[in-house]
Backbone:
């Protein structure tokens, strides 16, 4: 299956088109394609990025996650594993 996700537009909506990859990570998790919960993605953002980048990256992940849930809502898990 193929899905069209306009990650660039989503990233632009929060002010930084370079965050499209972060949006797509959220989409994949929201669809249940990544074995990472939304909570774990947020923790990962905080572990690898400097604090000044946390808010915008977490927002990108959350927006992507919501988009992913729209495509495959039954598979998404905000707290546990997505397997």
Residues:
């Amino acid at each position: 299956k193929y899905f069209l996700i306009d990650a660039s537009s989503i990233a632009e909506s929060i002010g930084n088109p370079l965050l499209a990859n972060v949006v797509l990570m959220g989409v994949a998790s929201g669809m249940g394609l990544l074995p990472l919960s939304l909570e774990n993605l947020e923790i990962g953002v905080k572990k690898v990025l400097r604090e000044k980048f946390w808010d915008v990256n977490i927002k990108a992940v959350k927006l992507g996650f919501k988009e992913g849930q729209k495509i495959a809502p039954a598979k998404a898990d905000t707290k546990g594993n997505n397997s």
Remarks:
- Residues 27-72 form one domain.
- The mean pLDDT is 90.
- The longest helix spans residues 54-71.
